[in-house]
Amino acid sequence: MKALVYNGPGQRSWREVPDPVIQDPEDAIVRVDAVTICGTDLHILKGDVPTVDHGRILGHEAVGTITDVGASVRGVTPGDRVLVSCISSCGRCEYCRQGSYGQCLGGGGWILGHLIDGTQAEQIRIPFADRSLYKLPANVSTEDALLLADILPTAYEVGTLNGQVSPGDTVVIVGAGPIGLSAITTSKLFSPANVIVVDAAPARQKAALEHGADLAFGPEDDVVALVLGLTGGLGADVAIEAVGVPATFELCTRVVRPGGHVANVGVHGASVTLHLEDLWIKNVTITTGLVDTSSTPRLLSMLAAGRLAMPGLITHRFGLDEMQDAYDVFSRAAETGALKVALFGDTEH
């Protein structure tokens, strides 16, 4: 089969690799019907995630069809159309029993495209298949399901829930990429009074407004002063960091009100200064997190029932064998306008 292989910082190749095989009785083999590229994949290619070995197949989000299962798999069978979760769960360790699958101690967590071969391939091996795959209802489209593999649960759990968005809140989301736009969607489930988005790109500011933000600001704006003016001098109840660079995190800490929440979602590849000399007196709660995907069944049920309006994030579509072109488009989002790219196998064309 062919797969997208990481060859070290700045180097990737779409090439022939061995087909995956069952290695453990809890494994499943999945034919990839659709896959996407995540900003985390770009961080890996920049060298920001040194735990990824050279030769690793990247990717951690997919929709596919099961072709084989191990002897201990009970919840899914060959032929099932499934969502491949970005997080794998052993189901037995202390963290998994608490629903904190991202911190799995039993060989799960974020392993796909990180510690084991991932989803940007024609076939994938999925460990702990009963707890890491979700059968898809017939009325859930492949494109919508693809957004539930990582991006929607991440925005919901690490942004909206960690930030404790509540009715009537003012929410500031810094970054209007796919995560930031998804945070608009999930924040609005809790009826905030205002959702304000900050992004350097005018096209993404426009996208934020189209996706339900009330206001969108850019680097030319005095964001802190504007937010203070809109909130009676208090600041945002919740600030969600959705970029992963020092300046955007620091902006979140400056725009949040005393007693507010800063929810960091972005993947950081460089040190950030934490200004405790300013924050210690403000009763600010700062949270970080890797998505657990414990919310995936709920989000999937809401989607199937028509209770979740999925954000239209997929802007570019490719065949699976156009992986290199898809990476080029996604990595130059400021030029191409790409929000999320989707690649489809032959069965989805």
TrEMBL record:
<dbReference type="InterPro" id="IPR036291">
    <property type="entry name" value="NAD(P)-bd_dom_sf"/>
</dbReference>
<dbReference type="GO" id="GO:0008270">
    <property type="term" value="F:zinc ion binding"/>
</dbReference>
<comment type="similarity">
    <text>Belongs to the zinc-containing alcohol dehydrogenase family.</text>
</comment>
<dbReference type="InterPro" id="IPR013154">
    <property type="entry name" value="ADH-like_N"/>
</dbReference>
<dbReference type="InterPro" id="IPR013149">
    <property type="entry name" value="ADH-like_C"/>
</dbReference>
<keyword id="KW-0862">Zinc</keyword>
<dbReference type="InterPro" id="IPR011032">
    <property type="entry name" value="GroES-like_sf"/>
</dbReference>
<feature type="domain" description="Enoyl reductase (ER)">
    <location>
        <begin position="8"/>
        <end position="343"/>
    </location>
</feature>
<dbReference type="Pfam" id="PF08240">
    <property type="entry name" value="ADH_N"/>
</dbReference>
<dbReference type="InterPro" id="IPR002328">
    <property type="entry name" value="ADH_Zn_CS"/>
</dbReference>
<dbReference type="Pfam" id="PF00107">
    <property type="entry name" value="ADH_zinc_N"/>
</dbReference>
<keyword id="KW-0479">Metal-binding</keyword>
<keyword id="KW-0560">Oxidoreductase</keyword>
<dbReference type="GO" id="GO:0016491">
    <property type="term" value="F:oxidoreductase activity"/>
</dbReference>
<protein>
    <submittedName>
        <fullName>Zinc-dependent alcohol dehydrogenase family protein</fullName>
    </submittedName>
</protein>
<dbReference type="InterPro" id="IPR020843">
    <property type="entry name" value="ER"/>
</dbReference>
